[in-house]
Amino acid sequence: MSLKGTLTNRRGFLVSVGVGVCGGLAGCLSDGNDAGTPTTTQNDRSATPETDTPEQVVKTAPSDDAPMTTSTETSTTSTPSEPVSPPLRSESGTTSYGIGLAGNPIIANTSDPTVDIYYWSDYQCAYCKQFEMGDNGALPKLIRNEVSDGVARIVLLHYPNYGDHSWTADVMATCLWNRVKDDRPDRFWEWHRTVFENQQLDGGEWSSRSNLLGYARDIDGIDANALDQCMKQNRKQHEAKIKQERKRARNEGFSDTPGFVLYHSGSDQTTSFFGAQPYSTFKQQIDAYRNL
Description:
The protein is α+β, with helices and mostly antiparallel strands and 292 residues long.
């Protein structure tokens, strides 16, 4: 089933672009097609609902190690792409598209890029892993090209989608980033990548709190005990922020992960699509924005 991305601006115009094929609960597995001929219709972003019931935000009340909701995804195993060490930075404030930057890891060489890429993900999502680490993963190529050139920055956002373990992973990621962002942001990325490397789709203990902390203990420069304490003391606070990010993703039209919004501040236009899109999908739209 072909899906449509959307190119919109705040004046209410929408242009659709074909981008993927739906596959499983985690999002869409791209069919590799390039964007089709744009068609224009009316779109009013202000009509997007801004409320989200607790049932929509959390399927079960978050707890540290309760059994997670088992996904029915089929494992998409592939040889990991060559690891990258992205330039990670911490920023504050809110972008002109209304995305808060404080407390979120940002992959960027500049705070004033041509294009922002807002990326919502779940550590238990197979298609997020494919986007980041698959043999044709788009993220390493984006980092080596558009991020390296200062054209794009990627803002990592939370969208826990598979029960308690997803929430635990996102809370731990938030605690870890806040601890290492100023001195050793590379430690966050090593943990982040390790979680995806250990990802399994059987609903097992790989994503339990104890195992997530175990990955942290194996990385030099991370104080796993302090990380554990942060989760005990600040979980509710971090969950509140994560819920807001998840609600924003739903308001953008994403029911699954990964979800992407490419924003060009110069024209106030956006392109939205979801699933493990190939690098060519991102590059085509970024190049179009560069030429505006």
